[in-house]
Specification:
Chain lengths: 192, 408
C-alpha cells in the first residue's frame, strides 16, 4: 500500500535548510529537545510531536530520511565503569523509521531499520542494518543483533529474517513518507 | 520495509506456481523467470556469531559444535551474559534476571572466554555405542571384502618387501578378518519408566525454553550456554546461476550480486485502502512503479473467474519510464493512453480499476501482467552454442498478480 498523505500544522514545525522538519510545539512540555548543540541531524528527517531528544546527556547523531514518530524518547545510555560513569552517544543511520512511543537507549541503530511502536531498546544495545523490531518488543541492555534480523519479544530475540531487498524498500518508504508529509494549508494532491 | 508498504497484500506468481510478495522474489535472467526461496537452492556463505559478529570457518565451527566460545547466554532467560571481574578472576552475570555463575558450582575462571559447557551425561555410553557400530561396520565390510577376495585369490598373498607400506595394510586387514566381535560392555537396562509425582513438589521446574537451551542438563545446575552460530546464505537458481550473494563479512549489507525481482518487474501496489460495498459499483486504486533501469512496455489485463473479483476494466497498455529518465520530467499531466490511468508521476502510474462486489467478503483481484522483456542488459551468451544476436521477435513475460483487497 502506498503511504498516505500526512498533514501537519505549519506553525508547529520548523523546517531547516537541510530539509529537517522538527516539531517545536509540544503538548507534554514547552521544550522536549535538550542540548541542541549535541544533536546532529543530517537532513530530510522528521521529528514529530512530543519526541524527547536528550542531547544534553551525550551526542545524538541521526542520518538522512529518518522518521521519528510521536512520543518517542531518544536518550543516550549510561554505563558504570570502574573509574567513572560514561554516557554513550546514540548513532542512528539513514532511512530509519521509529514508530510511536518508543524508548531508545541504544548505542547504535544501523541504516534501514524499522522500530515498531512502543518498543524499548535497552541500554547501549546495537541494532545493525536492515533489521526490524516488532511492536512492543523489549531489547535487553548491551544486546547485539546482526543485519537482516526480525527482532521481537521480551526479552527480544531474533524471530525471523528480513527480505534481502530491505534497503530498497526502506529507502522507498521513508522517502515516500517525507514527500507525503505536507503542511495542512497546502492544497491536497489529487492522489495519495 | 515490507511491513510499512504492506507488500504482502500483493502476491506474484512464481515460476513454481507459489504466490509470494515481490520483495521475496528473485528474477533469473537466464531462465527468464521469477524464482522464490522455495524453488532455488540456498547455500551457506558464512557462519558467524550473532552477538560478537566474529565469523568462523566451517571446520572450526564443526569442532566447536556450531557455538561461539566467547559469548554466553543466560540459561534461565536467554539474555547475553555480562563478564564481571573479582580478584582478577572472571564470572558471568545476567543483567536481566541477575543469575550468576557464582550461584552454581562453576568456579570463577582465569580467562573471560572458554566457559565449561554442559556435559552430556550419556557421553560415555554414546561413545561406546558409536565404537560398537564402527566395529560392526568394519566386520560387515570385511565380510564383503572377503567375498570379493575369494574370487581373486591372488590378492590375499603376502608381500616380502614392504616398500610401499602394503604389508601393514594387509596386516590391518587380516586383523579385521580375525576379530569377529568387539568387546564393549553390554547396554545396561535402564530403570522402569519413571512415573513420579515430582511435579507436585515446590521445586521450580525448568520451563520449556530453558530445557531446550540445555536439553541434556536434567537436574544438574545450569551452566552458561554458548551462543549458537548463525549462517548467512546465498541463493542460487536451479540453472546454477547465483541470484543473491552478499559481500564477505558478517555485518555487511552490500551485495556482490543481487537479482531482486523488484529491479526487473514493475511493482503493483494498492494506492488507497479500497472501500468496497456489497452490490455497488466500486473502484480500486492501484499504482504501478517501475524500479528497473529501463523503459518498460507492458499490458495489464484484469482477470475474472472462479474466486476472483469481477472487474469491468479492459486491457490497459502502458509505457513506463524508469526512475532516472529525464525525458519525462514534466510528465505529471495526464496522458491520453487509457481512461483507467489516473495519474503519471515519473516512473509511477496510478490506475483506477472498476470492480463490482456481490458478496460481503471480497475475493482477491486478479491481474495478468504482460511484460516486454528488455534483454539488452544480458551481456553473456546464454549457452556456448547459442549466438548472442538478439532475436527480432520481442520476448514477453506473463506474470499473474493477486491483490488482497480486504485485510483479514
Amino acid at each position: 500500500m502506498d503511504l498516505p498523505v500526512v498533514t501537519y500544522e505549519k506553525e508547529e514545525y520548523v523546517e531547516t535548510a537541510s530539509g529537517n522538519k522538527i516539531c517545536k510545539k509540544n503538548t507534554i512540555a514547552s521544550n522536549t529537545i535538550f542540548g541542541t548543540q549535541n544533536i546532529i541531524i543530517s537532513g530530510k528527517t522528521i521529528i514529530q510531536k512530543d519526541v524527547i531528544l536528550r542531547g544534553d546527556l551525550a551526542v545524538i547523531r541521526i542520518g538522512r530520511y529518518c522518521i521519528v514518530q510521536r512520543g518517542t524518547i531518544i536518550r543516550p545510555s549510561l554505563k558504570q565503569f570502574v573509574r567513572k560513569p560514561t554516557m554513550f552517544p546514540v548513532t542512528i543511520g539513514d532511512s530509519v523509521f521509529v514508530e510511536e512511543e518508543c524508548v531508545i537507549n541504544a548505542a547504535y541503530i544501523g541504516s534501514f531499520v524499522h522500530v515498531g511502536a512502543r518498543s524499548v531498546l535497552g541500554r547501549a544495545c546495537t541494532i545493525k542494518e536492515c533489521c526490524r523490531v516488532l511492536p512492543d518488543s523489549v531489547v535487553s541492555a548491551d544486546a547485539v543483533f546482526p543485519p537482516f534480523s526480525t527482532i521481537g519479544g521480551n526479552p527480544a530475540r531474533i524471530v525471523g529474517q528480513e527480505p534481502e531487498c530491505t534497503e530498497n524498500l526502506m529507502v522507498e518508504a521513508t522517502t515516500m513518507y517525507y514527500d507525503n508529509f505536507v503542511p495542512s494549508n497546502l492544497p491536497k494532491a489529487s492522489f495519495a | 520495509m515490507a511491513t510499512l508498504l504492506q507488500s504482502r497484500l500483493v502476491k506474484y506468481k512464481c515460476s513454481c506456481d507459489e504466490w509470494s510478495a515481490l520483495s521475496d522474489l528473485f528474477y533469473c535472467k537466464h531462465c527468464r523467470a521469477l524464482k522464490c526461496r522455495g524453488c532455488s537452492s540456498n547455500e551457506i556463505d558464512m557462519l558467524f556469531c550473532p552477538s560478537c559478529l566474529e565469523n568462523s570457518s566451517v571446520t572450526e565451527a564443526r569442532l566447536k559444535k556450531y557455538r561461539c566460545m566467547s559469548c554466553n547466554e543466560c540459561p534461565k532467560c536467554g539474555r547475553l551474559l555480562a563478564v564481571r571481574t573479582a580478584n582478577e578472576k572472571f564470572y558471568l552475570v545476567c543483567i536481566g534476571c541477575r543469575w550468576t555463575t557464582r550461584e552454581t558450582d562453576t568456579p570463577d575462571q582465569q580467562a573471560s572466554s572458554q566457559w565449561p559447557m554442559q556435559e552430556n551425561p550419556y557421553e560415555e555410553e554414546i561413545q561406546n555405542v558409536i565404537e560398537k557400530m564402527r566395529g560392526l561396520a568394519n566386520i560387515e565390510k570385511a565380510q564383503r571384502d572377503q567375498r570379493d577376495l575369494k574370487k581373486r585369490p591372488m590378492n590375499s598373498g603376502y608381500r616380502l618387501t614392504d616398500k610401499f607400506g602394503l604389508q601393514q595394510m594387509y596386516e590391518r586387514r587380516r586383523k579385521t578378518f580375525e576379530k569377529a566381535t568387539v568387546d564393549v560392555p553390554v547396554h545396561e537396562p535402564v530403570d522402569p519408566t519413571p512415573f513420579s509425582l515430582d511435579f507436585l513438589s515446590a521445586k521450580p521446574r525448568p520451563t520449556l525454553d530453558q530445557i531446550m537451551r540445555q536439553p541434556l542438563a536434567g537436574d544438574q545446575p545450569p551452566k552458561p550456554v554458548h551462543v549458537a552460530l548463525k549462517s548467512r546464505k546465498s541463493i542460487r537458481c536451479s540453472c546454477q546461476h547465483t541470484l543473491v550473494k552478499l559481500e564477505y563479512g558478517p555485518s555487511t549489507i552490500k551485495y556482490k550480486l543481487n537479482m531482486f525481482a523488484r529491479n526487473f518487474i514493475p511493482e503493483v501496489r494498492l494506492s488507497r485502502t479500497p472501500n468496497l460495498k456489497a452490490g455497488n459499483e466500486n473502484w480500486v486504486m492501484i499504482s504501478l512503479t517501475n524500479h528497473t533501469s529501463c523503459k518498460l512496455d507492458l499490458t495489464l489485463t484484469p482477470e475474472s473467474g472462479e474466486g476472483l473479483m469481477n472487474c469491468s476494466t479492459g486491457e490497459i497498455a502502458l509505457n513506463l519510464p524508469f526512475a532516472e529518465d529525464s525525458s519525462d520530467l514534466l510528465g505529471t499531466e495526464k496522458r491520453s493512453d487509457n481512461e483507467a490511468v489516473v495519474f503519471r508521476q515519473r516512473h509511477r502510474v496510478g490506475i483506477r480499476l472498476d470492480v463490482s462486489q456481490v458478496a460481503e467478503d471480497a475475493p482477491p483481484l486478479g491481474l495478468m501482467m504482460n511484460l516486454r522483456l528488455d534483454d539488452s542488459f544480458i551481456q553473456t551468451p546464454l549457452t556456448k552454442n547459442e549466438e548472442t544476436k538478439p532475436s527480432d521477435e520481442p520476448q514477453w513475460l506473463a506474470i499473474p498478480v493477486r491483490l488482497t483487497l480486504q485485510d483479514s
